[in-house]
Design brief:
There is one protein chain. The protein has 7 helices and no strands. The protein is mainly α. The chain folds into 3 domains: 37 residues; 71 residues; 64 residues. Helix 1 crosses helix 2 and helix 3 crosses helix 5. The relative contact order is 0.05.
């Protein structure tokens, strides 16, 4: 009995095909490559951000602060080392500064990745729009050849290529009009 490849197995699942499976694999490989190529400082920032956003972080801090308060309030029989809690406040402030910096670094990287993905989406959408326009033209010619009825008005609109710069300009104009109405 011959073993099925992962591609063939995935293509056999409802809603999946080889091309979709390949695309998913390419995206996964790209993420892996980007992580591997990112500087150590970015990976450290991501690790710190990920840990600081976890419940383990909350529990560790809860235990440290509770222990600190109990000791320095004189409730556990150990001599207080920070009876005014100035050291605790200073430590928490410095930690907050560093954590917010790590979070901002990670958010900047995430925004950069989101921008790259958005650019890819736009390129794919433009390519798809162009291909669909060509398909409409081809199907129209086939329909004309076989004598099928065609709504010429609708078809002529669909045959027009869309210029991205014109779309962006129209969006900008509409945004400007909307912002003027709000004022």
């Amino acid at each position: 009995m011959q073993m099925k490849s992962e591609d063939t197995e995935a293509a056999d699942k409802p809603g999946m095909n080889r091309l979709l499976t390949r695309n998913i694999e390419v995206l996964r490989e790209e993420r892996t490559r980007m992580v591997a190529q990112s500087p150590v400082s970015d990976r450290v920032a991501d690790a710190v951000t990920q840990f600081s956003g976890s419940m383990l972080f909350v529990f560790v801090h809860l235990a440290i602060v509770a222990g600190w308060v109990l000791v320095n309030a004189g409730l556990v029989g150990i001599k207080p080392f920070d009876p005014t809690f100035v050291i605790l406040a200073t430590t928490a402030s410095v930690e907050a500064i560093f954590l917010s910096t790590f979070v901002l670094i990670s958010q900047n990287r995430a925004a950069e990745l989101a921008n790259r993905r958005a650019d890819l989406d736009v390129q794919i959408s433009l390519l798809t729009e162009h291909e669909v326009t060509k398909l409409v033209d081809l199907v129209t010619r086939v329909a004309e050849k076989v004598g099928a009825p065609i709504d010429q008005g609708e078809v002529s609109e669909l045959k027009k290529d869309v210029a991205p710069e014109a779309v962006l300009e129209k969006i900008s104009q509409e945004d400007e009009r909307a912002s003027k109405r709000k004022r």
